[in-house]
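PROTEIN DESIGN WORKSHEET
SECTION A - STRUCTURE
LENGTH: 329
TOKENS:
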């Protein structure tokens, strides 16, 4: 089959609400700085009413990544579930406006479109409270074999290990990708996901995954060690490529015996770290689909991450294609 897409991603379709917050606000609300927690709809309504004025934008980890890939000039498709409501229409419009294929039918009845309430402290750290809503209603029937089979890389969001039906959709996509000889990439998503599903994630990585994205907290949580180098080596032993980010320390990419350290791209001021890991994955996957070397893939990822942390919101506000060209990448 002719390849139509560089990357097809499957994830939780979420609208992000991003607002500035003080450490005192987090403490008053019982929120752990830098964490992500799941909340119900009632708590979401209450917290939303207490947050400062902010911006609302389509998000979701894998959704942010494919938006970044499109900004690089790549071809991308997205599979995720929204409700047939106003936020669902906003999400679908935003995704298609970036040039990403998104045609999963909306949920006609049931939970509302998912939203993530993100409080950003002055140091740029984000604390996320997520109501998953309709995103958990993604089913295997929503996974179009034609899209998966026509994609160079299938990118899977670790958050999908939580809802059972979504995990089945996840497994179907992985099976189709493997049968078609496509690369399978996985992001661990969050340390809490790793803690909840360590065994299942480890088994899935060993059996199915070619490329694993993680940050320092996630990879050390996966192997239950504080030894970063040991954790990265253990991850690399279980996958073809391990790409691990370390915030201002840059990233490490390991494939076989090759160990590449990538510097973080310069940024004048860190405004909001929301989406940094998602955009790193965007640059890396775009580079990989374009047959770039692993160090260049890492540099593209670092460039995209630096762009997104310089402003509020999880998606690029400039053309990443033009930005990369200006840097000779």
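SECTION B - SEQUENCE
RESIDUE ASSIGNMENT:
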């Amino acid at each position: 089959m002719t390849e139509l897409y560089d990357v097809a991603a499957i994830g939780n379709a979420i609208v992000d609400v991003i607002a500035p917050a003080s450490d005192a606000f987090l403490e008053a609300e019982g929120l752990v700085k830098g964490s992500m927690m799941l909340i119900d709809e009632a708590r979401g309504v209450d917290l939303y009413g207490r947050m400062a004025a902010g911006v609302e934008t389509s998000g979701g980890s894998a959704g942010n990544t494919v938006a970044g890939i499109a900004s690089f000039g790549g071809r991308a498709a997205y599979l995720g579930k929204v409700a047939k409501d106003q936020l669902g229409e906003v999400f679908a419009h935003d995704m298609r406006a970036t040039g990403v294929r998104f045609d999963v039918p909306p949920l006609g009845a049931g939970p509302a479109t998912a939203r993530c309430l993100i409080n950003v402290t002055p140091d740029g750290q984000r604390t996320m409270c997520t109501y998953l809503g309709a995103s958990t209603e993604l089913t295997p029937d929503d996974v179009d074999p034609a899209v998966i089979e026509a994609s160079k890389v299938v990118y899977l969001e670790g958050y999908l290990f939580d809802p059972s039906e979504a995990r089945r959709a996840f497994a179907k996509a992985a099976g189709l990708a493997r049968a078609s000889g496509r690369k399978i990439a996985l992001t661990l998503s969050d340390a809490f996901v790793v803690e909840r599903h360590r065994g299942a994630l480890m088994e899935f990585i060993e059996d199915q995954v070619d490329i694993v994205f993680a940050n320092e907290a996630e990879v050390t949580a996966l192997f239950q060690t504080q030894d970063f180098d040991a954790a990265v080596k253990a991850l690399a032993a279980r996958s073809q490529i391990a790409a691990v980010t370390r915030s201002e320390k840059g990233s490490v990419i390991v494939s076989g015996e090759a160990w590449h350290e990538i510097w973080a791209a310069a940024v004048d001021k860190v405004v909001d770290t929301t989406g940094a890991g998602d955009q790193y994955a965007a640059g890396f996957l775009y580079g990989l689909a374009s047959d770039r070397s692993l160090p260049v893939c890492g540099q593209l990822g670092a460039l995209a991450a630096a762009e997104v942390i310089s402003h509020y919101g999880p998606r690029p506000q400039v053309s990443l294609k033009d930005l990369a060209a200006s840097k000779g990448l």
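SECTION C - NOTES
The mean pLDDT is 93.
The chain has one domain: 5-12+61-110+136-326.
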